[in-house]
Amino acid sequence: MPRKVEAGKPKEFRKTFKRMLGDFKNQRRAIVFIIILAIGSAILSVVTPSLLRNILDNPFDLFIIDPISSTILMNWSQFATKFGTLLGLYAAAALLAWLSEFAAVSVSARYSYDMRVKIQDKLDRLPLSYFDRVPYGDTLSIGTNDVDNISRNLQSIITQIFSGITLFFGSLAAMLIIDWRIAPVAFASLPLSFVFIILISTFSGKLFSSYRKNLGTLNGQIEETYSGYKIIKLFNKEKDVEAEFDKTNLKMESSDRFSQFLSGLIFPTTFFVNNLAYVGIAVVAGIVSTAGTMISFFIYLNLFTRPLQQIGQIANIIQSVVASGERIYDLLEEPEQDPDKEGAIDNEDCIEGNFDFENVDFSYTPDKPLIEGMNLHVNKGDMVAIVGPTGAGKTTLVNLIMRFYEINSGKISLDNISTLDYTRNCLRGSVGMVLQETWLFKGTIRENLLYGNQDATDEEIIQACKDAHIHHFIETLPGGYNFMLNEDGNNISQGQRQLLTIARAIISKPKIMILDEATSSVDTRTEQLIQDALDKIMQGRTSFVIAHRLSTIKNAKTIIVMKKGHIVETGNHQELLAKGGFYADLYNAQFAGVNPMAKADEGVLES
């Protein structure tokens, strides 16, 4: 599982930072161009106070004496040249700064795009076990919040670091050149400002980290509350949820308030120190130098201390950005599912549907064995029902058939060929699945139905919906088959969503059918109609049916009874009832009120 990294506190700063630099290798020229623009803007900002000093120290250059009238007149030519040059330099500095910011936005946008593509490609290659053990919110946060955090702050890091360094050393050199006697007065403010900034940044950085941590907790609570709002209302837990939310919200508000308060002290404290330096400069310059020098030193002092004011902010931003990068790289380094074998079969047409399980062992975790030594043979076209108590391994068996998980040992064969010798696309493309959980996406009903077969005709779609007994309902909706479903299809009933997934499975024309309590969300009458439709589409297809309502599997050719990961009984409905074993107990529990758990100690394991 990815390490829990608090934003602002990366565990391997140097390693992650070096790797992040490598991600910008393709944009090296653009970054160099941004740095040149930022440095150029800073250099022009350093040059302008010197020109202003020259104007102020030589004011008579702006005037001329009329030889005829002996009056003093403005020398407009000199005025336009000197002040025009000054304004031009200010404008050029602003333009270069804007261009550097604009170019930095392009670099960060490209980074976001490339990184999200990498994350999406990675998610496509991850095994299902990753999604079982890592909360969806964590993965979504990495692909959105962490990538955005890097993208948003990247431009300020690049431009402010290089422009700040240039301003600091450029102003330092300019003050020494203009008047080395006044420069020490300005430099005297440096240690005091530096001490204030380091102290404030240290404490505010810890509070920023606490804020980010509490923000993540709060987002998780919101996601959990929204997804489970029906359960919360069912058990009247609104007050408890609100109390927990308020508790986390208050922690976040407190850390946010104090962190912002402390970070906000940087400017007024440095401003106070600068004012002391201004007084010192005014006194010394008034004694040993000119008014123009004094004013230029005021400007240089501001340029000189500006990077210091940004140190704390930039340091926190860099820590936060590297921490986000660390979370992204943790995801990108997750173990991937084994690639398909070279030369693996990728032709669904050759699949018939004969299955063999040979001494199959599987467990989700090493310390909790589930399926052990399973042996099973299924002929083409057979309907195999899988029954058993919760945790027996029924759904796990389906997961192994689909290669959602790889077995620990043994062999699963399809048509006498190991399933490992088929590509996953080929294996899964030959299977139609209808599960308890309906898989519907935001889009029209037609788009959701075509998810199983993009080449299906309108006639095939309508016939499949008629077979699934959903056509009439679709016709009553605004737009019919073009009716827009919400996310998860929650603007129609659960039973109607189930019928749509059955129609989608029919449209896909699979070689193998897997039904996991496919009629659990419909009424008894509709269940019988759907069962008839399923019986038709299962004819000639190998079918695995997981059922809790044992009345729906009476016609199965073979019924597999599972218990704690083992097959304990096999046979048809009549044979298993005649044995009077575990299946008979399960059947009687549904129709005669007998509790089979009174006869067997059932452990509940992961299925």
Could you walk me through the main structural features you see in this protein, from its secondary elements to its overall organization?
This protein is an alpha/beta fold. It is built from 20 helices and 14 strands. It has helices at 13-23, 28-57, 76-125, 128-133, 136-178, 183-187, 189-227, 229-234, 238-264, 266-288, 291-332, 394-401, 424-429, 445-449, 458-467, 471-476, 494-507, 524-538, 573-579, 582-591, and strands at residues 63-65, 72-74, 355-362, 371-378, 383-387, 409-414, 417-418, 431-434, 443-444, 484-485, 512-516, 542-546, 558-563, 566-571. The strands form four sheets. It has a six-stranded mixed sheet with strand order 8-11-12-5-13-14. Strands 4-3-6-7 form a four-stranded antiparallel sheet, with helices on one face. It has a two-stranded antiparallel ribbon with strand order 1-2. Strand 1 (63-65) and strand 2 (72-74) form a beta hairpin. The two termini are 21 Å apart. Residues 1-8 and 597-607 have low confidence and may be disordered.
